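Budget justification aside, the reviewers requested a transparent look at the raw inputs and outputs of the sequence design task funded under Objective 1. We therefore reproduce one unedited record. The lines immediately below are the structure tokens for a 356-residue chain.
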């Protein structure tokens, strides 16, 4: 019997509403995720970017109910196919993880157990979610390993994870994800630890998974990766959404000063060489001391009185799907970006003159 729906059906595959995650620490409460709302449509790739500590991993671990820290408090709603994952039993959640939602993390050992062979682990995953004989599951594991480019899969299937290289382990984890054709794949920095060639292969595999209909939330520091694979982009800062929208809109008409900084930090392939790589001045905000107003204000060259109030995430003029959380007038963003860039460049020139 299908589970009764505890929430009204959402048109989205995944819809996160006002997710908050805080940790009780010895130094006081730490708010790692502060009212995150996002959605992913079936088959869509959402790229999530943000500096280290912006709450990307913690929010996805909360979605998957993998935050086991006893000092954590999670609130909000995580609607997956209309059901709030935060209210499901552990058993219901286990059935969803690995079958409807698959995960790939930066460290593939998070998903692999060192004491079992890679093939056994893939076969068990297949058997856990379908009526398949041990022999058939093993044969499928070999095919999957071969599909993800593991050479000599028929014999490598019996190897232990430590006998695989980092790239091979990551492929094995992707093979596990492929084994259940998940409706949603959550991938957290899946290519960061890998060399460039293997990175490209892993991205190709993820594209294939997406072409077969899986939606994806892809977390990465790498704007280049996002620009290649994402349909939509979400920029996080201080546990909040700074900006989200269709990829083209965010790359070609970024609206939030933090996104400007991120994009200006990316060297352009084939473009004019920058005299120096701009960086975003100032330190990332600490989740232990989030300002009441705009979290980016201490680093923003355009902050003004109103920024002491927390900006709401809203669409500017034009595209309703492109939203940002900033008080600057929506019509003036392009010229204000140039102003902010010029100010940053003046400060860098002064810094380098002082240093020489
Ligand atoms: N168990 C914990 N106790 C206290 N604070 C935590 C805990 N886990 C995470 N945090 C804090 O939550 C914030 C968000 O962490 P998170 O791992 O989500 O960042 P991230 O955006 O994934 O960064 P990175 O890009 O480095 O992976 C960080 O400031 C981190 O220090
Ligand atoms: S709300 Fe204010 S401080 Fe925040 S990004 Fe916009 S201008 Fe800067
Ligand atoms: Mg992380």
């Amino acid at each position: 019997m299908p589970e009764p729906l505890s929430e009204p059906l959402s048109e989205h595959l995944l819809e996160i509403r006002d997710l908050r995650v805080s940790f009780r620490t010895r130094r006081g409460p730490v708010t790692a995720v502060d009212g995150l709302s996002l959605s992913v449509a079936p088959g869509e790739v959402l790229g999530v970017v943000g500096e280290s500590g912006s709450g990307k991993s913690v929010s996805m671990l909360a979605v998957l109910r993998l935050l086991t820290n006893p000092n954590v408090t999670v609130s909000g709603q995580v609607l997956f196919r209309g059901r709030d994952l935060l209210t499901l039993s552990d058993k219901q959640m286990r059935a969803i993880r690995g079958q409807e939602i698959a995960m790939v993390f930066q460290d593939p050992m998070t998903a692999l157990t060192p004491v079992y062979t890679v093939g056994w682990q893939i076969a068990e995953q297949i058997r856990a979610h379908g009526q398949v004989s041990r022999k058939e599951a093993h044969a499928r594991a070999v095919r999957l390993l071969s599909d993800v480019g593991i050479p000599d899969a028929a014999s490598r299937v019996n190897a232990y994870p430590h006998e695989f290289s980092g790239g091979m382990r990551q492929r094995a984890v992707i093979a596990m994800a492929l084994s259940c054709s998940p409706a949603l794949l959550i991938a957290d920095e899946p290519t960061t630890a890998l060399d460039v060639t293997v990175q490209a292969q892993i991205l190709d595999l993820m594209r294939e998974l997406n072409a077969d209909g899986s939606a994806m939330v892809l977390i990465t520091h790498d704007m280049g990766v996002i620009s290649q694979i994402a349909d939509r982009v979400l920029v996080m800062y201080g546990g909040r959404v700074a900006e989200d929208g269709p990829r083209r809109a965010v790359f070609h008409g970024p609206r939030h000063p933090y996104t400007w900084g991120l994009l200006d930090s990316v060297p352009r392939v084939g473009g004019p060489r920058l005299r120096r790589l701009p960086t975003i001045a100032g330190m990332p905000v600490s989740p232990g001391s989030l300002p009441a107003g705009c979290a980016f204000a201490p680093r923003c060259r355009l902050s003004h009185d109103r920024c002491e109030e927390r900006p709401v995430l809203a669409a500017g003029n034009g595209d309703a799907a492109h939203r940002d959380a900033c008080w600057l007038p929506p019509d003036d963003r392009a010229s204000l970006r140039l102003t902010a860039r010029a100010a940053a460049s003046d400060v860098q020139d002064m810094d380098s003159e002082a240093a020489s």
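The mean pLDDT is 87. The chain has eleven helices and twelve strands. Computational costs for records of this kind are itemized in the attached budget.
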